[in-house]
């Protein structure tokens, strides 16, 4: 969790500053696209006649059965940690300098690998059933690192859940329970909600299951700097620890957002809650179901609200005139990006995308988050205060329009096992993965052979096959899908290899 002015607290729990997921035990758990076949997009609730009270009972009764409690468990495990060693202490502990095989240093840098037992961690959050066959949306921070997930429905039925896919950039995750005829929520178009509209926040805060709080939509397209892609709905409906992944619904009981964060000095609600809009959620869910990873479109700029840029200039004694006080000031253009090819330059101001006004960065993030690489958009910007409109083709992080997929160990074309104690002692190492079989694949293409011991990949130590799986999956969807593999041969000769994951 990132500190934002005071605290933006993802709704999972942890003392005073965390994602709103209630933490238990000794845990301090800090804290999708037109093709998503989840639920029908319907219209938002009509405004009641002037002077008439708003009845929220229908919305609560309609939506409560679709909101679930999620229990997170991460089992205790043994981890290797690197610690610095005092040379005098080391001498008295082992005056023969490791001659008998005790405590070899790593890389001769005065550090030592030691094993520690991590405690069992538990936590809790909320989720929303979006399809009758058991797909559930929640926050990534609710399920990240879980060994076990238990979902409890509003009627107290319990199910084990599996993770379909996660996306740290939007803090969304898709999980699934097995069965049929689950009470799926109706999904509204969050782009159509209005500031001042009544909403309910439904979840399981502080262990109080099936809790409903009411408020209004306070603002749209908020950015806080907590996630990579943000366009939050802000609400004053109370959101507290345990609400993470729960539902923000309109007066018809239709989903308009996934509750994610609260903004607080204390870690409890003081009137500022934030939800991920369903327009973004639908895109992420669709991608995770179809590809297993989000197909993220990129314009190829960095920037800030033009109002912020004007204030920064004035602090330096300047009087800037960009021709507008609303829009996105372009601070940098990525070379060979879609924006670069469209002729956008540093100092330009983006004011419209596909005919929609862009007044702040959250507007731009929200629009682009619903697109995929290869989609064409029109972008209107001011250059030297003159208006220009260009059509551009969005690209992925790797600079092309191809579908990005998570790579797995099959891509490497080899079998691995953790280094035996005998090999550790003979080679003077503390960890690594031994290649026990080489097939056709990236390992063979790079020239690695059976017996080579992989110790680090992109400077991440390889203690287990899970470590290798994680780094391959992460790097395969990055802007630079390259593995730098360092290790040692059976004869003790150190070596390194470069593995290109993309074609």
What are the main properties of this structure?
single chain, 503 residues, 11 helices, alpha+beta, 8-stranded antiparallel sheet, 34% strand
3D architecture notes:
Helices cover 16% and strands 34% of the residues. With 503 residues, it is α+β, with helices and mostly antiparallel strands. The longest helix has 13 residues, at 278-290. The strands form 6 sheets. Strands 2, 4, 7, 8, 9, 10, 11 and 12 form an 8-stranded antiparallel beta sheet that branches. Strand 30 and strand 31 form a beta hairpin. It contains 11 helices and 31 strands.
The tally of strands reads 31
Helix content: 10-25%
What is the 3D shape? Answer: globular
Number of helices in the DSSP assignment: 11
| β-sheet strand percentage | 25-35%
Radius of gyration: 26 Å
pLDDT averaged over residues: 83
> Which regions contain 5 or more consecutive residues with pLDDT less than 50?
1-9, 12-44, 96-108
Could you say which structural class the secondary elements and strand pairing correspond to? alpha+beta
Quick one: biggest sheet?
8 strands, antiparallel
Distance between the termini: 35 Å
């Amino acid at each position: 969790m990132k500190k934002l002015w005071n605290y933006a607290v993802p709704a999972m729990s942890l003392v005073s500053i965390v994602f709103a997921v209630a933490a238990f035990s000794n845990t301090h758990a800090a804290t999708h696209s037109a093709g998503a076949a989840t639920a029908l997009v319907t219209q938002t609730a009509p405004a009641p006649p002037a002077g008439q009270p708003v009845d929220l009972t229908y919305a609560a009764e309609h939506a409560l059965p679709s909101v679930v409690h999620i229990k997170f468990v991460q089992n205790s495990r043994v981890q290797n940690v690197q610690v610095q060693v005092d040379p005098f202490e080391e001498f008295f502990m082992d005056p023969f300098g490791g001659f008998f095989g005790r405590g070899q240093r790593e890389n001769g840098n005065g550090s030592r690998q030691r094993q520690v037992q991590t405690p069992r961690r538990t936590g809790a959050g909320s989720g929303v059933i979006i399809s009758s066959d058991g797909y559930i949306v929640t926050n990534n921070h609710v399920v990240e690192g879980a060994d076990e997930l238990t979902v409890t429905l509003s009627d107290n039925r319990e199910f084990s859940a599996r993770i379909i896919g996660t996306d740290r950039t939007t803090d969304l995750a898709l999980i699934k329970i097995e069965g049929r005829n689950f009470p799926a929520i109706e999904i509204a178009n969050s782009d159509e909600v209005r500031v001042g509209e009544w909403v309910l926040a439904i979840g399981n805060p502080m262990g109080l299951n099936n809790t409903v709080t009411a408020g209004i939509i306070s603002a749209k397209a908020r950015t806080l700097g907590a996630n990579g892609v943000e366009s939050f709905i802000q609400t004053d409906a109370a959101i507290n620890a345990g609400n993470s992944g729960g539902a923000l619904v309109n007066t018809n009981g239709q989903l308009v957002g996934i509750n994610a964060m609260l903004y607080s000095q204390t870690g409890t609600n003081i009137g500022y809650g934030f939800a991920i809009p369903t327009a973004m959620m639908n895109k992420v869910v669709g991608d995770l179901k179809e590809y297993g990873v989000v197909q993220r479109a990129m314009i190829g700029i960095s920037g800030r609200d033009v109002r912020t840029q004007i204030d920064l200039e004035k602090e330096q004694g300047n009087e800037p005139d960009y021709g507008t006080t609303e829009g996105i000031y372009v601070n940098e253009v990525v070379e060979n990006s879609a924006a670069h090819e469209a002729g956008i330059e540093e100092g330009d101001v983006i004011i419209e995308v596909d005919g929609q006004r862009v007044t702040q960065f959250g507007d731009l993030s929200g629009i682009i988050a619903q697109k995929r690489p290869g989609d064409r958009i029109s972008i209107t910007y001011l250059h030297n205060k003159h208006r220009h409109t260009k059509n551009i083709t969005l690209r992925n992080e790797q600079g092309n329009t191809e579908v990005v997929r998570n790579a797995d160990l099959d891509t490497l074309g080899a079998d691995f096992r953790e280094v035996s104690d005998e090999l550790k002692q003979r080679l003077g190492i503390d960890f690594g993965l031994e290649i026990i079989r080489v097939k056709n694949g990236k390992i063979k293409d790079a020239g690695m052979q059976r017996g080579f011991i992989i110790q680090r990949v992109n400077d991440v130590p390889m203690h287990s096959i899970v470590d290798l799986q994680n780094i391959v999956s992460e790097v395969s969807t990055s802007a630079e899908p390259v593995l730098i593999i360092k290790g040692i041969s059976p004869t003790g000769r150190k070596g390194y290899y470069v593995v290109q994951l993309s074609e």
